Amino acid sequence: MADMKTDQVYQYLERISNLLRTDTRRTMVEKGLQPVQLEALHYLSHCNRYSNTPAAVADFLGLTKGTVSQTLGLLENVGMIEKLPDYKDRRMVHLQLTSRGNKVIAETIPPKSLQMAMEQMTESDQDSVLLALDKMLKAMQGANQLRTFGVCKTCRHHQIETDDQHRCALTGEYLKAEDIDKICREHESPA
Ligand code: SF4
User: Fold this and answer.
1) Of all protein residues, whose CA lies closest to atom 6 belonging to ligand 1?
2) Domain ranges of the chain
3) Measured in angstroms, how far is the CA atom of residue 173 from the centroid of ligand 1?
4) The domain 1-110 is classified under which CATH number: 2.10.109.10, 3.20.20.70, 2.60.120.10, 1.10.10.10?
5) Is any ligand 1 atom within 6 A of the Cβ of residue 56?
6) CA angle (113, 132, 27) in 5-degree steps
7) Are 186 and 173 contacting, i.e. CB atoms less than 8 angstroms apart?
């Protein structure tokens, strides 16, 4: 049986999720999107080049490849994403947001209610919330042994060779500056 604090944390998270969902849903209706389509679009807006495949989207959303394929097909049909072949393996497909997709994300996420709440908090309260949420996310990912989809610069494979030259030790490839803050399917925590 869950202890009282766990129960309280769950209730806070549930209420915050409901508020965010309600706020986001309003914008989604205007854009003609379903929740899963927005989640896939948002994931693709901040994942790196190793993680923008249909299989990675399915992993991130915890859905089957068939369900994700329908979602991605629809996003492509309405001109929010486009498919690009892999430069090494032509059978592999990468997904990229179009300017229309980027515009939808910029107008929808983060929801206005969250932006307003953050503006009302002190910087130190904002930092405390970030730290606590980061710890909770890592603990939950560890407990479930799921892929962490963490930010590249926090990965144990991330090597800094010089200030402006970073390399992924897993793939051996150099990382672009914009990749460093993106999330990755292959991310592994240093611990
Ligand atoms: S360093 Fe880690 S997170 Fe970054 S690209 Fe390599 S595997 Fe992914």
Assistant:
1) 168
2) 1-110
3) 10
4) 1.10.10.10
5) no
6) 20
7) no
Q: Which residues of the chain are under the pLDDT cut of 70?
A: 1, 143-146, 191
pLDDT at 93: 94
**Which atom of ligand 1 is found nearest the CA of 171?**
6
What's the confidence (pLDDT) of residue 82? 97
Q: Is 186's C-beta closer than 6 angstroms to any atom of ligand 1?
A: yes
Q: Are strands 93-97 and 81-85 parallel, antiparallel or unpaired?
A: antiparallel
The pLDDT score that the predictor gives to residue 156 is: 92
Ligand 1 atom at minimal distance to the Cα of residue 158: 1
Q: Which of 141, 148, 152 to mutate to test the pocket of ligand 1 (most atoms within 8 A of CB)?
A: 152
pLDDT at position 2 is: 72
The pLDDT of residue 191 is 67
In terms of DSSP H, where are the helices of the chain? Answer: 4-31, 35-45, 54-61, 65-77, 99-108, 112-120, 123-144
